[in-house]
Amino acid sequence: MGRAIVALCFVATGALASGCQSPQPLPVAQAAAGAPQPSLPPSNYELAEAGTVFVWRDLNSGDTKEEYVKENVGRMMDSNFGRRRSFAYVPDPWADNENTKEADIEPLFPLEVGKEVTFHRQPRIGRTVDTVKVVRTETLTLPFGTVDTYVIETTSKVVSGSWVGTATCWYAPSVRWQVQWVIQDNAGDNRRRQVIEVRKPS
Fold it and tell me: What is the pTM assigned to this prediction?
């Protein structure tokens, strides 16, 4: 009897321990190895209309969050990501109207594979040099459907310091929004997320 109780305690403890573990990170959506790259016309990076809702899944935690598109001004993406305001000159997640001139990123458009732009920003951390490059096109299969995307990579480095950040953005012209992000830096930032649902304004 005593042994049975001890065994049950071990089983219960194991179940509790497994229940408390962090969920396994989900993989980033990518095209199958060797899959042909889709042919996309040059894209002016149009942005979704105001009122569109994108539901994002955090690939590290599995949590979901809704992004509400607001009116955009020029190249500036403006939305509410959950309770926080999100605005930037995408596809550079660090470039916004307080540290970047819109004219600096303008030469990247219209998007075409191989196109690249380098410019300086002036955030609080100090003068920074950013390089944004359209590296390829890729067909992604996401929970809301299959979309052709431009894959855009950004590298940002502070000029007088050690901080370096990299970001990969998958922009889908068909939904006029980015549908997947991988953002990380050498200060511990690690964001991976993808769109799982799109709700257009009624």
Answer: 0.85
